[in-house]
Amino acid sequence: MQAHGFLRWSEKYFKTDMVYLAKGGFWLTLGYGGQIISGLILTIALANLISKEAYGTYQFVISVGAIIGGFTLSGMGTALMRTVARGSKGTLQYAFKTQLTWSVGAVLAGGMLALYYFLNNNVELAIAFLVIGACVPFLSGFSLYRPYLEGMGFFRESTMLGIWRRPLPVISVLFALLLTNDPIVLVLTYFLSQTISIGLLYRLIVRRYPESSEPNQELLTYSKHLSVMGIVGIVANNVDKMLVFHFLGAAPVAIYTLAQLPSTHILKMFSLAGNLVFKKFARRDLSTLKEMIAHKIGVFSIATIAVVSVYIVAAPYIFKFVFPAYQEAVLLSQILILAVLLKPFMLYTQVFASHGLKRAQYFIQISTTIIKLSLLLVLLPIYGLWGAVWTTLIASLYWGIIAAILFYSKKISDPQN
User: Fold this and answer.
1) What is the C-alpha separation between 375 and 377, in angstroms, rounded?
2) CA distance 188 to 390
3) Helix or strand or coil: residue 334?
4) Which of 29, 38, 103, 280 could form a disulfide bond with 72, CB atoms 3.0-4.6 angstroms apart?
5) What is the CA radius of gyration of the chain?
6) Is pLDDT above 70 for 213?
7) d(CA 248, CA 228)
8) Distance CA 349, CA 362 (A)
9) What was the pLDDT predicted at 97?
10) What string of DSSP letters covers 25-79?
11) CA distance 155 to 146
12) Residue pair 278/350 in contact by the 8 Å Cβ criterion
C-alpha cells in the first residue's frame, strides 16, 4: 500500500502513470532478464568452447537468418499489438494465418541462398539456409502470441510463458555443443528448437483465448507498411556482420559480435519501455503527447547516461572474466555503447508506430539504412572493425536527430502521415 502511494505521489514529477509502469515494467524486465540469462549462457559457451572462426560463422548465419525473417510480414507484431491495444481482441489467429500466407518471400529467399551456396560447393551453408527458410515463417507466426498478450496488457502472462519456453533452445544447443563444434549444426539446432518451443506457446494461447479468425483489413494494411519498414530495419541491424564477414572474415565477426553484445542487450532492455508505453501512446492524442514527451525523454536520458557510464568503467573486468579470449573487443564495446545515449528518442518512434504515422516511419527507416549501408561500404574496407563502429555511432546520431525533427514537425499532426 505504501509503495502504491509512493508511486502515485511520484507521478507529479515523472508525468507518467507510475503504477502501470511499475507493474508492467516489472514483468517485462523480469522476462527480458530471463532472455538475457539464457542468451548469455549460450554466448559464453559458444565463445569459449569453439574457435573464433566457428563462432563468427555461427553469427554470420544467424544474421542472414534474421534478414530472411524480414520477408515474413515482419510488421505484423506491432500492427497486432496496436489493434489489440485499441480494443480488437479477435485477431491472433487471423494474424497468424496472414503471416504464413505472406511468408513465401522468406521461403524463396532461403531457397535462393541455398541454391547459391550449393552451386558454390558449400553444401553445409546450403542446407542451413534451406532449413532456416522453412522454419522462419512458423517462428515469426508463432511469436505473435507475445504482442497479442502485451497489447492486452497481460505482461505477467507474457513474461511467465517466455521464461518457461527458453530452456528448450538453450539445452538443445548446449547438448549439440557437447557433440560437435560445427557452427552449421549449432545454428540448425537453435532454429529448430526455437520454432518448437514458441509453437507450443502459441498453441497454448489459442486454447486459452479462443476466438474467431475474423479478417481485419486495417491490421493487414498497416502490417504491410510496417513490414516494408521492418525489412529495411532488419537489414540495417544485420548487414554490418554480413559485410564484416565478406570484407574481414569469420574471426572479426566473432570479435565484433561480442563488442556489440552489451549495447545490443541494453538497447533491447530500453525497448521494453517502448513496448510498455505503446498502449498508453495509442490511446492518447498527438497534441497531448507533444506536451508531455520531452519530460519523459529527459528522465529516460538520465537513466541512460548512468547505465552507459557504469558499463564503460566495468567493461574491462567483464571481458576479462567472461570472454578472456576477446580482449580486443573491450575498447570497441566501450565506444559502441555510446550509441545507447540516443535510445530515449525511441519514444518519438513509438508515437509514430502507435498512431500509424507511416510516412515518418518510412523516412526514418529508409534514410537511416541508406546512410548506414553507405558508410559501411566506405569505412569498413579502410578502417576494418573501427569503420563498423563509427558507422553505428553516426547512423544512431542521425536516427535520433531526424526522429526529433519529424516529431515536432507540423505535418505530424496529420494522421495520414
Assistant:
1) 5
2) 33
3) helix
4) 103
5) 21
6) no
7) 30
8) 11
9) 86
10) HHHHHHHHHHHHHHHHHHHHHHHHHS-HHHHHHHHHHHHHHHHHHTTTTTTHHHH
11) 9
12) yes
Q: Is the pLDDT of residue 50 over 50?
A: yes
Grid cell, residue 35, equals: 532472455
Please report where in the chains the cell 533452445 appears, as a residue.
169
Q: Is residue 291 within 8 Å of residue 279, measured between CB atoms? A: no
Please check the confidence at residue 392 and state whether its pLDDT lies above 50: yes
The C-alpha atoms of residue 274 and residue 257 are separated, in whole angstroms, by 24
Report long-range pairs for 314-323 (Cβ below 8 Å, ≥24 apart).
315/262, 318/262, 319/258, 322/44, 323/44, 323/47, 323/48, 323/258
Is this prediction's pTM over 0.90?
A: no
Query: CA 21, 25, 28 angle in degrees (round to 5)?
Result: 150
Sign of the alpha-carbon dihedral angle for 84, 90, 91, 92? positive
Task: Return the pLDDT at 3.
Answer: 46
86 pLDDT higher than 80: no
> 298 — phi, psi (to 5°)?
-60, -45
Q: Pull the grid cell for residue 95.
A: 494474424
As given in the structure block, the three cell numbers for residue 373 are 549501408
Residue 215, class by beta-carbon neighbours within 10 Å (0-12 exposed, 13-18 middle, 19+ buried)? exposed
**Mean pLDDT for the chain?**
81
Residue type, 165: R
Sign of CA dihedral 370, 374, 391, 53: positive
Nearest to 189 by CA among 143, 131, 133: 131
C-alpha 285/C-alpha 185 separation (Å) is: 50
319 in the Ramachandran plot: left (φ > 0), alpha (ψ -120 to 50) or beta? alpha
With CA atoms as reference, report the closest residue to 149 among 24, 273, 37.
24
Going from the C-alpha of 410 to that of each of 220, 280, 358, 364, 385, the distances in angstroms are 28, 22, 15, 17, 40
pLDDT of residue 19: 43
Q: Under a CB-based contact definition with an 8 Å cutoff, are residues 404 and 349 in contact?
A: no
Look-up: residue for cell 539504412? Answer: 369
